[in-house]
Design goal:
The chain is mainly beta. It has three helices and 26 strands. It starts with a helix and ends in a 6-residue tail after the last strand.
């Protein structure tokens, strides 16, 4: 009987100790950081100076703006379990240890600590939550950007800089290791990048301008050559800003491109011109004559207009529509440009003799502008029809 009683007391003791440890784990002692801010906002969430991390007021806050408050730490923000928006810009942070797992927007630009010669000490990211979509870390001291979460859509890392003891300012960002495939906006301007990483397919806006810097005070000189290599541009890209760099050649411009800013580089020509595109520094299409940097030559076939409307009565060939066909830098230097059309369309070079396909000879790697006639054949079935005309040339490549 005595032995049994002793075992019961022993098991009860273990249970009570475990329960006490578990219940105390919800309380944390904040030293500095957000202690005063959280205490002012949620005094009921503190017990004898300890923060109750399960307090309902604390865990349901969704928006926090603590910008321009001279803060050196935001420790404690990780306990705001439902936080979606955090603005900590204009403080003196050197690092962030942890972020809430629910965060959607982080704006933490312009951290400067006047107590240091180089006050731009915020230069590394904490683990980013998978929920983060918008990240602004501009005007800090980053030299490398890495660890970006998949799902991020907007990134501004422009203007990262240092303050030299001589009083000079200069850029610091030298590398972006990789970008998430979800990214649609990237601003990495005013950096000292010399190349760009592989650009994600969803990217619509790119600003990588002003990476070429020269600063000097007669004693110290910093010379940043700028970006010299641009990877393939995504098919979704609408705005591309690459001004003031060291670029000799640009890759093929996507058909989606609305604006190109490329002044202040070494460009003499472009691989192609997108119809309707704005360009701040007009350039011709690359040819063997103007391609001084070896960017091509680039075989190029152009047809204009690209849409032709035709009408007719059943059993009767339509009146002809026309388009102009030209090509340059073709390889081999002589050959034929082939034209084919949908089954109900007919093609001609003289508007008299029509056929379902054409073969147009060229020499000197150039097809001079040639007018092509297109009509609906008399055998076309009644109804609303949509067809295509394909212009192509066989190309040879030297490997």
């Amino acid at each position: 009987m005595q032995t049994c009683f002793m075992k019961k007391i022993f098991f009860l003791f273990i249970f009570v100790c475990f329960f006490n440890i578990s219940s105390k784990s919800q309380y944390v002692l904040l030293v500095g950081g957000l202690h005063d801010t959280l205490y002012a906002m949620f005094p009921g969430c503190f017990n004898n100076g300890y923060l109750d991390t399960t307090c309902a007021e604390l865990t349901t806050i969704r928006h926090l703006d603590i910008s321009s408050e001279g803060r050196y730490s935001i420790s404690g923000v990780q306990y705001l379990d439902s936080l979606k928006y955090l603005n900590c810009s204009g403080n003196a942070l050197s690092e962030i240890f942890a972020l809430p797992g629910s965060l959607d927007t982080l704006i933490c630009r312009s951290q400067y600590d006047a107590g240091f010669i180089n006050g731009y000490r915020f230069a590394s990211l904490p683990p980013l939550p998978a929920t983060l979509r918008y990240l602004d870390i501009s005007n800090n001291g980053f030299s490398t950007i890495q660890g970006l979460n998949e799902g991020l859509r907007w990134l501004d890392c422009s203007g990262n800089k240092f303050h030299h003891s001589s009083g000079l300012f200069g850029p610091t960002l030298q590398s972006i290791v990789s970008l998430p495939s979800s990214l649609v906006y990237l601003n990495c301007s005013a950096s000292c990048l010399t190349s760009l990483p592989v650009l994600p397919p969803a990217l619509e806006y790119l600003d990588a301008s002003y990476s070429k810097f020269y600063v000097s005070n007669g004693i110290f000189t910093f010379n940043f050559p700028g970006i010299s290599f641009v990877p393939n541009l995504p098919s979704a890209l609408s705005v591309c800003k690459l001004s003031t760099n060291n670029i000799n050649c640009l890759p093929q411009l996507p058909a989606s491109l609305d604006s190109l800013y490329a002044g202040g580089n070494n460009l003499t020509c472009l691989t192609n011109i997108v119809p309707g595109m704005f360009i701040d520094y007009p350039l011709p299409v690359c040819t063997q004559a103007n391609d001084t940097h070896g960017c091509g030559p680039f075989p190029y076939i152009a047809a204009s207009p690209t849409i032709i409307s035709l009408t007719t009565l059943s059993g009767t060939a339509s009146a002809s529509g026309t388009y102009n066909l030209s090509a340059h830098d073709l390889n081999p230097a002589s050959g034929n440009v082939s034209i084919s059309a949908s089954a109900f369309l007919e093609l001609s070079t003289d508007n008299v003799n029509f056929s379902s396909s054409l073969s147009i000879p060229y020499t000197g790697a150039v097809l001079a502008t040639t007018q092509i006639y297109v009509r609906i054949s008399s055998s076309a079935q009644p109804g609303l029809l949509a067809g295509t005309v394909t212009n192509s040339a066989e190309m040879q490549m030297t490997l």
